[in-house]
Amino acid sequence: MESTTASTRLFSPKSSSVLIPNSFHSFLKPSKTHLPAIAHLPLKYFTNTPIHFKTTSTTRPGFSIVQTRATVDETDRVADSRLLVDQEKQEQPNKEVEECVKVLKNAAKTRRVAAKEVLSALSVMEKAKLDPSGFLETLGGLKSPGRTWMLIFTAKNGLKSGSYIPITAVQRFDAAVKRIENGVFLGPLGCLSFEGRFSWKKSILAFVFERIRVKIGPFNSFEIPFGGKDEREPSTKDPFFIWFYIDEEIAVARGRSGGTAFWCRCRRVASY
Prior knowledge:
There is one protein chain. The chain has a domain at about 130-265: Beta Barrel (Lipocalin), CATH 2.40.128.280. The longest helix is centred in the middle third of the chain and has 16 residues, at about 95-110. The protein has about 270 residues and is an alpha+beta fold. It is globular and about 45 Å long. Strands 7-9-10-11-12-14-15-16 form an eight-stranded antiparallel β-barrel. Strands 1-2 form a two-stranded antiparallel sheet. Strands 4-5 form a two-stranded antiparallel ribbon. The chain has four helices and 16 strands. The relative contact order is 0.22.
């Protein structure tokens, strides 16, 4: 997390930005989410209404680029039997945690649950200390291209305040090849995404980005590599998440600086 020329941060010590370059470091900060570039977009770009976004058809080994539809996935929930077995081995959540999970799932679907209730639910889930043994497979799937998650809500350090994310920010985790991709999508205006590698230890996912991909309007996307030939395994010296809860629909994690967020599964659509 300490800096390359195009370093990216999520809940970093000096910023609460969401995985975008330093020049955009306040892009998703809860108190600074009114962006001039998107101020006049139709309301549909800021809701859970299904929205299609084009990406390039470029494919890399084990980590293909796919089109993403930012909507809660209600139908594509058929899990691999191995995942179900892993989940059965996990410690069963207590009643309080189960109620908090319901609160967060409702918040993901409606975005109408009060921030105070969301913050309270996140607090309970952080303190529950659930067994993380099946988290990685649930987060990133058992085969490429992995699974896709949409950021719903971020909270500041200490869970004293937080807000829903008003734009479409999506992350994809591929547990099979330990790859991560993060994107911010603005409908027909284009998108900005980052790709890199991650490591996993217990419940900690540390990551390093290696390239940025930019697409503006109808024009072809272009890619900028950074980080040189650094092939070391990501560690807690880099950006990381500590995961507290992951199931087939939502995931909860805290970033390096203490900010907490939750995501919901969203559907991938074939690229074109």
